[in-house]
Amino acid sequence: MQPSNDDTPSLFPQLSDELHPAARAKPTGVAPQVPDASVTELSSRIPSDLRLGTSSWSFPGWRSLVYAGEASETLLAREGLAAYAKHPLFRSVGVDKTYYRPAPRAEFERLAAQVPSDFRFLVKMWRGVVEHGVRGPGTAPVSAADTFLDARVAEVECVRPAIEGLGDKCGPLLFQFAPMRLAGSRAHRGFLAQLAQFLAALPKGPLYAVEVRNRSLVSEEFAPRLGALLADNGAVPCLTVHPTMPDVELQSRELALDPSRPLVMRWMLRGNHAYAEAKDLYEPFDKIVEPDDASRDALARLARAALGAGVGVWVIVNNKAEGSSPLSVERLARKIVDA
Q: Whole-prediction pTM value?
């Protein structure tokens, strides 16, 4: 298994600790920051079906932006979500750790208990079902040598724990595909056919989102097929701001988004940096270092169009987009509602 790009601590305590009554009764040591009046006023103008949030919440540099005092990454990862959810602009969050290991239902129940009833999670599905040759932690059927696009494994290890643990607070379930070796049209068609079979076999009901990192899959040749198979199986594309992909407006045009389906977008990484480089430049993620107005404006235009069509919108923002995802969320929110 390749090393993780997500270097935050585990979001979850040991399961035995979670089930212990004393652990449940332990008060949180994380206090929310009292927001500026301008942020509170901005939140009052955000439509209820616009859900903005960040990818994870365990960043000590967010002191005075999201959290009122100092706290370690470990404390924030385990106890900071309740404070995060009190930020008036945050109505969603990305759960990224589940990409690196499947999580049981009890862990999702713990997360759901920390947020208000109108909060929704975007959950990344385990990488073992979107990459070849990834071994699980040793439990069947996850320990199989290759579970790529195995719908049964996805259902048992990923989908059902999330939807049963989060309940009504479950938002999009995201299948993020890393760049793949797709040499020629035959390989592209083979992947799309396999993806269609996979989605068709998943449990009905959840909102599945698919994010690809192959620019060729949103080309004129293959984007119509990808968009159609997603629509046919009740899934939606996740448009992403990432160096491997064209801009989000081109993605939306090529994929011919269904205007009756929710819009899911992620603002992840500037085009002029690799992940590790952006992390080094932007830490501790407490200020906007490199504004990306072009991406912000494109995301805002797409969000306004979807809201105008009466469908829900998710936008999840990473620190590596501009330097500080809480401040990027605020910039995006203003662009959406002030237009």
A: 0.90
